[in-house]
Amino acid sequence: MNLLVLGVNYHTAPVAVRERLAFTPAELPTALAMLSAEHGVTEAAIVSTCNRTELYCNTRDPQQVLAWLAQTRGHSVQDIEPHLYLLNGGEAATHAFRVASGLDSMVLGETQILGQLKDAERFARDAGTMGVLLNGVFQRAFSVAKEVRSQTRIGAASVSMAAASVRLAERLFPSVASCKVLFIGAGEMIELCATHFHARNPKHIAVANRTIERGQALAKQFGGEAILLSDLPFRLAEFDIVVTSTAAPLPIVGKGMVERALKERKRRPMFMVDLAVPRDVEAEVGDLSDVYLYTVDDLAEVVRQGQESRAGEVESAEAIIFERVGDFHRWVASRALVPTIRDLKDYADRIARHELEKAHKKLAAGDNAAAVLEEFSRQMANKFMHAPLAALNNVLPEDQENTLATVRRLYRLHE
């Protein structure tokens, strides 16, 4: 078994690169089937969030996986390789455990990534690409995350993207209570942002979504209204604050749409937060003089402020992860013994069946039962001992000491 993690994250690439390598939920079933069909790839899972895209594979050919990612995303290997990290074995397991525990997140100790890893595991399981190795990695990652959460304060007072968005909005406007807020999308991130903004009692809340039913369900929680995405060009000018996070493959809010909204607003400023990867708002919108546009990368510094209090917990979390990676190594090593254990058991079963069949025939022929049992016992012992005795008789002199020690340990022969 050969664990590989090939990925890109906010440490190694800006959002403009990450969005080109991201996978939408709709793409995942086909992508998983294609990746697992590559030569040398026996298991596959894909984690794709706003901050990272990572391929988890059981493979002996990392270059094959790299070539597949480049081809699938429409880029050359040379273009994307500088932004990628490639981890094998223990390093890959350590990375997976750190990611699950929130130690590799932009928001130190955040819990959303654990849910995203569970989604990735479920997608791979549904696609039939989750095997023994990746199942072992993911289940252990979930267990480690729980252990880190319960034994450290790594997630205490987490400064989330949602909280950072509110903080930035309050730098622009005297009070969120005087603003109208629009949320585009209806997923977990938008629900979290809506919770934070709703706590500031904004003048009005609206949720724009592709399906009106999902938008209505979320808007109802916060006393707001639901609108369709198709209504955005006609309603955008009403809102002072816009927060968007969808899984759309292309931008939803274009520069022209925002320019028209600003004209209608008589140049009153708009605060926009784009938490999606790929981005929901065209990058050129940030060039407009009356728009304050922030992406996930722009929020990084705001998020880092206030995290110093939890930095001391990182060491404790890393110690837990180090111990659990050791457990993972031992588990992988034990899995390598399985074929030999199975073959040894099959060998013993064949001898037993053969000798039992002979004994049954003798008993059916009327032979003395005690004599048959004695012969059965003797033949069983002879057959079991034939292979190890032959090996001992043929061992080379220079290997004799080690071989004898191994045999005595296997058969528990006391000195």
UniProtKB/TrEMBL annotation:
Pfam families found in the cross-reference section: GlutR_dimer (PF00745), GlutR_N (PF05201), Shikimate_DH (PF01488)
Miscellaneous note of the record: During catalysis, the active site Cys acts as a nucleophile attacking the alpha-carbonyl group of tRNA-bound glutamate with the formation of a thioester intermediate between enzyme and glutamate, and the concomitant release of tRNA(Glu). The thioester intermediate is finally reduced by direct hydride transfer from NADPH, to form the product GSA.
Protein's UniProt keywords contain Oxidoreductase: yes
Tetrapyrrole biosynthesis glutamyl-tRNA reductase dimerisation domain segment(s): 317-413
Function text: Catalyzes the NADPH-dependent reduction of glutamyl-tRNA(Glu) to glutamate 1-semialdehyde (GSA).
Protein name: Glutamyl-tRNA reductase
Keywords, comma-separated and alphabetical: NADP, Oxidoreductase, Porphyrin biosynthesis
Domain of life assignment: Bacteria
Pathway noted in the entry: Porphyrin-containing compound metabolism; protoporphyrin-IX biosynthesis; 5-aminolevulinate from L-glutamyl-tRNA(Glu): step 1/2
Binding site for substrate: 49-52, 105, 110-112, 116
Family stated for the protein in its record: Belongs to the glutamyl-tRNA reductase family.
Domain Quinate/shikimate 5-dehydrogenase/glutamyl-tRNA reductase stretches: 168-302
Description of how the protein assembles with itself and partners: Homodimer.
InterPro entries, A to Z: 4pyrrol_synth_GluRdtase, 4pyrrol_synth_GluRdtase_dimer, 4pyrrol_synth_GluRdtase_N, GluRdtase_CS, GluRdtase_dimer_dom_sf, GluRdtase_N_sf, NAD(P)-bd_dom_sf, Shikm_DH/Glu-tRNA_Rdtase
Annotated EC: 1.2.1.70
Enzyme class: oxidoreductase
Site feature Important for activity, where: 95
Signal peptide positions on this chain: none
Residue sites binding NADP(+) per the record: 185-190
Description of its domains: Possesses an unusual extended V-shaped dimeric structure with each monomer consisting of three distinct domains arranged along a curved 'spinal' alpha-helix. The N-terminal catalytic domain specifically recognizes the glutamate moiety of the substrate. The second domain is the NADPH-binding domain, and the third C-terminal domain is responsible for dimerization.
GO terms for MF: glutamyl-tRNA reductase activity; NADP binding
Annotated catalytic residues: 50 (nucleophile)
Glutamyl-tRNA reductase N-terminal domain mapped to chain residues: 6-152
